[in-house]
Design goal:
393 residues, 8-stranded mixed beta sheet, alpha/beta, two-stranded antiparallel sheet, 12% strand, Rossmann fold, 13 helices
Length: 393
Protein backbone atom coordinates (compact mmCIF):
# COMPACT_ATOMS: atom_id res chain seq x y z
CA UNK A 1 0.00 0.00 0.00
CA UNK A 2 1.54 3.30 -0.94
CA UNK A 3 2.34 5.83 1.74
CA UNK A 4 1.40 9.47 1.69
CA UNK A 5 4.87 10.41 0.72
CA UNK A 6 4.53 8.36 -2.40
CA UNK A 7 2.11 11.01 -3.83
CA UNK A 8 4.65 13.75 -3.44
CA UNK A 9 5.34 16.57 -1.08
CA UNK A 10 2.81 19.03 0.39
CA UNK A 11 3.50 21.47 -2.35
CA UNK A 12 2.64 18.74 -4.83
CA UNK A 13 -0.84 18.42 -3.28
CA UNK A 14 -2.19 21.72 -4.73
CA UNK A 15 -4.79 19.86 -6.79
CA UNK A 16 -6.11 18.32 -3.57
CA UNK A 17 -6.61 21.73 -1.99
CA UNK A 18 -8.49 22.87 -5.06
CA UNK A 19 -10.80 19.85 -4.86
CA UNK A 20 -11.51 20.49 -1.18
CA UNK A 21 -12.32 24.12 -1.94
CA UNK A 22 -14.83 23.14 -4.58
CA UNK A 23 -16.56 20.75 -2.17
CA UNK A 24 -16.82 23.41 0.52
CA UNK A 25 -18.31 25.96 -1.89
CA UNK A 26 -20.79 23.37 -3.18
CA UNK A 27 -21.91 22.55 0.34
CA UNK A 28 -22.49 26.17 1.19
CA UNK A 29 -24.50 26.71 -1.97
CA UNK A 30 -26.74 23.75 -1.16
CA UNK A 31 -27.39 25.10 2.30
CA UNK A 32 -28.53 28.40 0.84
CA UNK A 33 -30.74 26.90 -1.92
CA UNK A 34 -32.67 24.37 0.13
CA UNK A 35 -34.27 26.89 2.51
CA UNK A 36 -35.32 29.04 -0.48
CA UNK A 37 -36.99 26.07 -2.14
CA UNK A 38 -38.91 25.38 1.01
CA UNK A 39 -39.66 29.01 1.66
CA UNK A 40 -43.24 30.39 1.28
CA UNK A 41 -43.85 31.57 -2.25
CA UNK A 42 -40.33 30.80 -3.46
CA UNK A 43 -39.72 29.79 -7.06
CA UNK A 44 -36.81 27.75 -8.32
CA UNK A 45 -35.52 27.20 -11.75
CA UNK A 46 -36.49 23.55 -11.72
CA UNK A 47 -40.00 24.19 -10.35
CA UNK A 48 -42.86 23.32 -12.77
CA UNK A 49 -44.59 26.25 -14.53
CA UNK A 50 -47.82 27.51 -12.90
CA UNK A 51 -50.97 25.67 -14.03
CA UNK A 52 -53.35 27.48 -16.39
CA UNK A 53 -56.47 28.93 -14.78
CA UNK A 54 -59.50 26.66 -15.27
CA UNK A 55 -62.12 27.74 -17.79
CA UNK A 56 -65.22 29.28 -16.20
CA UNK A 57 -68.34 27.17 -16.04
CA UNK A 58 -71.19 27.92 -18.46
CA UNK A 59 -73.20 29.63 -15.76
CA UNK A 60 -70.24 31.42 -14.14
CA UNK A 61 -70.43 35.24 -14.24
CA UNK A 62 -68.01 36.95 -16.54
CA UNK A 63 -67.32 40.51 -17.54
CA UNK A 64 -66.58 39.63 -21.16
CA UNK A 65 -69.03 38.41 -23.78
CA UNK A 66 -67.29 35.74 -25.81
CA UNK A 67 -68.74 34.80 -29.19
CA UNK A 68 -68.67 31.12 -30.16
CA UNK A 69 -65.84 30.16 -32.48
CA UNK A 70 -66.72 30.89 -36.10
CA UNK A 71 -69.69 33.08 -35.20
CA UNK A 72 -70.21 36.80 -35.13
CA UNK A 73 -69.93 38.36 -31.72
CA UNK A 74 -73.25 40.13 -32.23
CA UNK A 75 -76.19 38.17 -30.84
CA UNK A 76 -79.54 38.37 -32.64
CA UNK A 77 -82.38 39.70 -30.47
CA UNK A 78 -84.79 37.08 -29.18
CA UNK A 79 -87.89 36.41 -31.24
CA UNK A 80 -91.08 38.11 -30.16
CA UNK A 81 -93.98 36.04 -28.85
CA UNK A 82 -97.23 37.37 -30.39
CA UNK A 83 -100.27 37.84 -28.20
CA UNK A 84 -102.87 35.05 -28.56
CA UNK A 85 -105.57 36.01 -31.05
CA UNK A 86 -108.43 34.91 -28.82
CA UNK A 87 -109.91 37.81 -26.88
CA UNK A 88 -108.25 40.60 -28.87
CA UNK A 89 -111.61 42.00 -29.96
CA UNK A 90 -112.43 42.77 -26.34
CA UNK A 91 -110.08 45.75 -26.70
CA UNK A 92 -112.07 46.96 -29.70
CA UNK A 93 -115.26 46.84 -27.68
CA UNK A 94 -113.74 49.18 -25.12
CA UNK A 95 -112.35 51.54 -27.76
CA UNK A 96 -115.63 51.77 -29.63
CA UNK A 97 -117.45 52.47 -26.39
CA UNK A 98 -115.02 55.31 -25.55
CA UNK A 99 -115.31 56.78 -29.07
CA UNK A 100 -118.94 57.72 -28.55
CA UNK A 101 -120.34 55.65 -31.42
CA UNK A 102 -123.47 57.30 -32.86
CA UNK A 103 -124.69 53.83 -33.74
CA UNK A 104 -124.90 53.08 -30.03
CA UNK A 105 -125.40 55.94 -27.60
CA UNK A 106 -127.53 58.08 -29.90
CA UNK A 107 -129.81 55.23 -30.97
CA UNK A 108 -130.35 54.14 -27.37
CA UNK A 109 -131.08 57.71 -26.38
CA UNK A 110 -133.75 58.22 -29.05
CA UNK A 111 -135.39 54.81 -28.67
CA UNK A 112 -135.74 55.28 -24.91
CA UNK A 113 -137.93 58.37 -25.25
CA UNK A 114 -141.48 58.12 -23.90
CA UNK A 115 -143.02 58.72 -27.33
CA UNK A 116 -141.41 58.45 -30.76
CA UNK A 117 -142.46 60.97 -33.39
CA UNK A 118 -141.60 60.98 -37.08
CA UNK A 119 -138.84 63.44 -36.30
CA UNK A 120 -137.38 60.88 -33.91
CA UNK A 121 -137.42 58.20 -36.58
CA UNK A 122 -135.81 60.62 -39.03
CA UNK A 123 -133.07 61.20 -36.47
CA UNK A 124 -132.55 57.45 -36.17
CA UNK A 125 -132.30 57.10 -39.95
CA UNK A 126 -129.80 59.96 -40.16
CA UNK A 127 -127.72 58.32 -37.43
CA UNK A 128 -127.65 55.04 -39.32
CA UNK A 129 -126.56 56.73 -42.53
CA UNK A 130 -123.85 58.76 -40.79
CA UNK A 131 -122.54 55.51 -39.39
CA UNK A 132 -121.83 54.34 -42.97
CA UNK A 133 -124.37 51.58 -42.74
CA UNK A 134 -125.48 52.21 -46.32
CA UNK A 135 -128.92 53.13 -47.63
CA UNK A 136 -130.30 49.61 -48.00
CA UNK A 137 -129.21 48.23 -44.60
CA UNK A 138 -130.23 51.51 -42.90
CA UNK A 139 -133.80 51.32 -44.25
CA UNK A 140 -134.00 47.64 -43.36
CA UNK A 141 -132.87 48.23 -39.78
CA UNK A 142 -135.16 51.25 -39.40
CA UNK A 143 -138.26 49.33 -40.42
CA UNK A 144 -137.40 46.44 -38.14
CA UNK A 145 -137.00 48.80 -35.19
CA UNK A 146 -140.26 50.63 -35.93
CA UNK A 147 -142.19 47.39 -36.13
CA UNK A 148 -140.78 45.91 -32.93
CA UNK A 149 -141.12 49.13 -30.92
CA UNK A 150 -144.72 49.58 -32.06
CA UNK A 151 -145.67 45.96 -31.35
CA UNK A 152 -143.74 45.52 -28.10
CA UNK A 153 -144.07 49.06 -26.83
CA UNK A 154 -140.71 48.87 -25.07
CA UNK A 155 -139.29 51.99 -23.43
CA UNK A 156 -137.18 50.69 -20.56
CA UNK A 157 -133.45 51.22 -21.26
CA UNK A 158 -132.51 47.57 -20.72
CA UNK A 159 -135.29 46.31 -23.01
CA UNK A 160 -134.48 48.93 -25.68
CA UNK A 161 -130.82 47.98 -25.58
CA UNK A 162 -131.56 44.29 -26.00
CA UNK A 163 -133.94 44.99 -28.90
CA UNK A 164 -131.35 47.17 -30.63
CA UNK A 165 -128.65 44.58 -30.02
CA UNK A 166 -130.72 41.87 -31.68
CA UNK A 167 -131.45 43.98 -34.75
CA UNK A 168 -127.86 45.20 -35.17
CA UNK A 169 -126.58 41.66 -34.82
CA UNK A 170 -129.02 40.52 -37.49
CA UNK A 171 -127.75 43.03 -40.08
CA UNK A 172 -124.10 42.26 -39.20
CA UNK A 173 -125.08 38.61 -39.84
CA UNK A 174 -123.44 36.17 -37.40
CA UNK A 175 -124.30 33.25 -39.69
CA UNK A 176 -121.51 34.09 -42.16
CA UNK A 177 -118.44 31.84 -42.11
CA UNK A 178 -115.63 34.10 -40.89
CA UNK A 179 -112.98 31.43 -40.45
CA UNK A 180 -109.80 31.60 -42.51
CA UNK A 181 -109.13 28.81 -45.03
CA UNK A 182 -106.12 27.31 -43.25
CA UNK A 183 -106.65 23.64 -43.99
CA UNK A 184 -103.71 22.33 -46.00
CA UNK A 185 -104.84 20.78 -49.31
CA UNK A 186 -103.50 17.45 -50.57
CA UNK A 187 -102.59 17.41 -54.27
CA UNK A 188 -101.46 14.14 -55.88
CA UNK A 189 -100.65 12.71 -52.50
CA UNK A 190 -98.56 15.73 -51.45
CA UNK A 191 -99.70 17.99 -48.62
CA UNK A 192 -99.43 21.60 -49.75
CA UNK A 193 -99.46 24.78 -47.65
CA UNK A 194 -102.59 26.87 -47.37
CA UNK A 195 -102.01 29.84 -49.71
CA UNK A 196 -103.50 33.25 -48.95
CA UNK A 197 -103.22 36.31 -51.19
CA UNK A 198 -103.77 39.80 -49.76
CA UNK A 199 -104.98 42.59 -52.06
CA UNK A 200 -105.97 46.24 -51.71
CA UNK A 201 -104.96 49.74 -52.69
CA UNK A 202 -101.88 51.43 -51.26
CA UNK A 203 -102.50 53.38 -48.08
CA UNK A 204 -104.94 50.95 -46.52
CA UNK A 205 -102.25 49.27 -44.43
CA UNK A 206 -102.05 46.20 -46.65
CA UNK A 207 -98.42 45.23 -46.11
CA UNK A 208 -98.66 45.97 -42.40
CA UNK A 209 -101.77 43.78 -42.27
CA UNK A 210 -99.86 40.90 -43.85
CA UNK A 211 -97.19 41.25 -41.18
CA UNK A 212 -99.77 41.34 -38.41
CA UNK A 213 -101.60 38.37 -39.89
CA UNK A 214 -98.35 36.42 -39.81
CA UNK A 215 -98.18 37.16 -36.08
CA UNK A 216 -101.75 35.89 -35.62
CA UNK A 217 -100.80 32.63 -37.33
CA UNK A 218 -97.57 32.27 -35.33
CA UNK A 219 -99.58 32.81 -32.15
CA UNK A 220 -101.67 29.80 -33.24
CA UNK A 221 -98.45 27.76 -33.64
CA UNK A 222 -98.54 27.67 -37.43
CA UNK A 223 -95.43 27.89 -39.62
CA UNK A 224 -95.50 30.67 -42.21
CA UNK A 225 -93.65 31.93 -45.29
CA UNK A 226 -94.18 35.48 -46.58
CA UNK A 227 -94.08 36.41 -50.26
CA UNK A 228 -93.19 40.04 -51.08
CA UNK A 229 -94.97 40.25 -54.44
CA UNK A 230 -95.48 44.01 -54.14
CA UNK A 231 -92.37 44.67 -56.21
CA UNK A 232 -93.34 48.15 -57.39
CA UNK A 233 -93.10 49.88 -54.02
CA UNK A 234 -89.45 49.94 -53.00
CA UNK A 235 -90.03 49.77 -49.25
CA UNK A 236 -92.70 47.06 -49.32
CA UNK A 237 -90.33 44.07 -49.30
CA UNK A 238 -88.14 45.61 -46.60
CA UNK A 239 -91.19 46.36 -44.49
CA UNK A 240 -92.54 42.84 -44.87
CA UNK A 241 -89.16 41.27 -44.12
CA UNK A 242 -88.91 43.28 -40.91
CA UNK A 243 -92.32 42.07 -39.77
CA UNK A 244 -91.40 38.47 -40.48
CA UNK A 245 -87.98 38.56 -38.83
CA UNK A 246 -89.49 39.65 -35.52
CA UNK A 247 -91.32 36.34 -35.18
CA UNK A 248 -88.94 34.08 -37.10
CA UNK A 249 -90.89 33.98 -40.37
CA UNK A 250 -88.86 33.99 -43.64
CA UNK A 251 -89.68 36.35 -46.50
CA UNK A 252 -89.23 35.45 -50.16
CA UNK A 253 -88.44 38.59 -52.18
CA UNK A 254 -86.84 39.73 -55.41
CA UNK A 255 -83.27 41.00 -55.51
CA UNK A 256 -84.39 44.03 -57.53
CA UNK A 257 -87.33 46.40 -57.60
CA UNK A 258 -89.92 46.03 -60.33
CA UNK A 259 -89.50 42.27 -60.73
CA UNK A 260 -92.36 40.09 -61.93
CA UNK A 261 -94.83 39.81 -58.99
CA UNK A 262 -96.09 36.45 -60.22
CA UNK A 263 -92.56 35.01 -60.18
CA UNK A 264 -92.03 36.15 -56.58
CA UNK A 265 -95.39 34.71 -55.52
CA UNK A 266 -94.55 31.40 -57.21
CA UNK A 267 -91.15 31.22 -55.50
CA UNK A 268 -92.81 31.90 -52.13
CA UNK A 269 -95.28 29.07 -52.60
CA UNK A 270 -92.55 26.72 -53.79
CA UNK A 271 -90.52 27.62 -50.70
CA UNK A 272 -93.57 26.83 -48.60
CA UNK A 273 -93.93 23.43 -50.25
CA UNK A 274 -90.22 22.64 -49.86
CA UNK A 275 -90.16 23.68 -46.20
CA UNK A 276 -93.49 21.95 -45.50
CA UNK A 277 -94.98 25.05 -43.85
CA UNK A 278 -98.61 25.53 -42.92
CA UNK A 279 -99.38 28.86 -44.60
CA UNK A 280 -97.94 31.04 -47.36
CA UNK A 281 -99.01 34.71 -47.25
CA UNK A 282 -98.55 36.66 -50.49
CA UNK A 283 -98.55 40.46 -50.41
CA UNK A 284 -99.49 42.08 -53.74
CA UNK A 285 -99.13 45.54 -55.26
CA UNK A 286 -101.81 48.07 -54.37
CA UNK A 287 -101.97 49.98 -57.62
CA UNK A 288 -105.43 50.79 -58.90
CA UNK A 289 -104.61 52.52 -62.18
CA UNK A 290 -107.31 50.81 -64.18
CA UNK A 291 -109.47 47.75 -63.90
CA UNK A 292 -107.92 45.95 -66.88
CA UNK A 293 -104.35 46.30 -65.60
CA UNK A 294 -105.33 45.15 -62.13
CA UNK A 295 -107.17 42.16 -63.54
CA UNK A 296 -104.18 41.15 -65.68
CA UNK A 297 -101.71 41.39 -62.81
CA UNK A 298 -103.77 39.58 -60.17
CA UNK A 299 -104.96 37.05 -62.73
CA UNK A 300 -101.38 36.17 -63.65
CA UNK A 301 -100.39 35.78 -59.99
CA UNK A 302 -103.34 33.48 -59.43
CA UNK A 303 -102.56 31.33 -62.47
CA UNK A 304 -98.87 30.99 -61.62
CA UNK A 305 -99.40 30.28 -57.94
CA UNK A 306 -101.99 27.58 -58.53
CA UNK A 307 -99.45 25.61 -60.56
CA UNK A 308 -97.74 24.87 -57.26
CA UNK A 309 -100.66 24.88 -54.77
CA UNK A 310 -104.34 25.87 -54.69
CA UNK A 311 -105.19 29.45 -53.71
CA UNK A 312 -107.37 29.09 -50.63
CA UNK A 313 -108.03 32.67 -49.59
CA UNK A 314 -108.04 36.17 -51.13
CA UNK A 315 -108.32 38.85 -48.47
CA UNK A 316 -109.21 42.43 -49.36
CA UNK A 317 -107.80 45.10 -47.02
CA UNK A 318 -109.99 48.20 -46.65
CA UNK A 319 -109.52 51.33 -44.57
CA UNK A 320 -112.62 51.67 -42.37
CA UNK A 321 -112.21 55.45 -42.16
CA UNK A 322 -112.82 55.90 -45.89
CA UNK A 323 -116.45 54.90 -45.43
CA UNK A 324 -118.57 54.82 -48.56
CA UNK A 325 -115.67 56.21 -50.61
CA UNK A 326 -113.95 52.83 -50.29
CA UNK A 327 -116.93 50.94 -51.65
CA UNK A 328 -115.95 51.45 -55.28
CA UNK A 329 -112.47 50.13 -54.59
CA UNK A 330 -113.98 47.13 -52.86
CA UNK A 331 -116.27 46.52 -55.82
CA UNK A 332 -113.40 46.55 -58.34
CA UNK A 333 -111.25 44.16 -56.32
CA UNK A 334 -114.22 41.95 -55.68
CA UNK A 335 -114.80 41.64 -59.42
CA UNK A 336 -111.21 40.98 -60.49
CA UNK A 337 -109.64 39.11 -57.59
CA UNK A 338 -112.30 36.69 -56.38
CA UNK A 339 -112.25 38.10 -52.84
CA UNK A 340 -113.19 35.58 -50.14
CA UNK A 341 -112.91 37.79 -47.06
CA UNK A 342 -112.40 41.37 -45.89
CA UNK A 343 -109.92 42.90 -43.46
CA UNK A 344 -111.05 46.27 -42.09
CA UNK A 345 -108.15 48.36 -40.79
CA UNK A 346 -108.39 51.44 -38.54
CA UNK A 347 -111.78 50.36 -37.28
CA UNK A 348 -110.97 51.83 -33.87
CA UNK A 349 -110.28 55.20 -35.49
CA UNK A 350 -113.89 55.76 -36.54
CA UNK A 351 -117.02 56.16 -34.44
CA UNK A 352 -119.09 54.78 -37.29
CA UNK A 353 -118.74 51.03 -37.59
CA UNK A 354 -121.60 50.61 -40.04
CA UNK A 355 -119.01 50.08 -42.78
CA UNK A 356 -118.87 46.44 -41.66
CA UNK A 357 -122.45 45.90 -42.81
CA UNK A 358 -122.08 48.01 -45.97
CA UNK A 359 -119.00 46.24 -47.33
CA UNK A 360 -120.42 42.81 -46.60
CA UNK A 361 -123.58 43.66 -48.48
CA UNK A 362 -121.67 45.16 -51.40
CA UNK A 363 -119.28 42.23 -51.91
CA UNK A 364 -121.31 39.38 -50.50
CA UNK A 365 -118.34 38.17 -48.44
CA UNK A 366 -117.76 38.42 -44.68
CA UNK A 367 -115.48 40.66 -42.69
CA UNK A 368 -112.99 38.17 -41.23
CA UNK A 369 -110.42 40.37 -39.51
CA UNK A 370 -110.37 43.89 -38.12
CA UNK A 371 -107.52 46.26 -37.26
CA UNK A 372 -107.75 47.69 -33.78
CA UNK A 373 -104.82 50.12 -33.70
CA UNK A 374 -101.14 50.65 -34.43
CA UNK A 375 -99.71 47.90 -32.21
CA UNK A 376 -98.15 44.76 -33.73
CA UNK A 377 -100.87 42.56 -32.27
CA UNK A 378 -103.79 44.89 -32.99
CA UNK A 379 -105.36 42.60 -35.56
CA UNK A 380 -108.21 40.39 -34.41
CA UNK A 381 -110.66 37.86 -35.81
CA UNK A 382 -114.03 39.56 -36.25
CA UNK A 383 -116.67 38.38 -33.77
CA UNK A 384 -120.12 39.93 -34.52
CA UNK A 385 -121.40 39.68 -30.96
CA UNK A 386 -118.41 41.45 -29.46
CA UNK A 387 -118.47 44.09 -32.20
CA UNK A 388 -122.14 44.94 -31.58
CA UNK A 389 -121.56 45.08 -27.83
CA UNK A 390 -118.73 47.53 -28.48
CA UNK A 391 -121.00 49.75 -30.54
CA UNK A 392 -123.65 49.78 -27.84
CA UNK A 393 -121.06 50.63 -25.18
Amino acid sequence: MPRLGDWGTVTDFSWLWILLGVLVVAGATTALVVPRRRGRGATTLDAPPPAAAPAPADDAPTDVDVAPVGQDAAVAPPLEVPEPAAGRLVRLRDRLARSGSPLGARLLSVLSRDTLTEDDWDEIEETLLLADLGTGPAEELLEALRTRVRVLGVREPAAVRELLREELLRVVDPTLDRSLALDRPVVDGVTKPAVMMVVGVNGTGKTTTVGKLARVLVAEHRSVVLGAADTFRAAAADQLETWGSRVGVPTVRSAKDGADPAAVAFDAVRRGVTDDVDVVLVDTAGRLQNKAGLMDELGKITRVVTREAPLGEVLLVLDATTGQNGMQQAKVFGEVAGVTGIVLTKLDGTAKGGIVVAVQRRLGVPVKLVGLGEGPDDLAPFVPEQFVDGILG
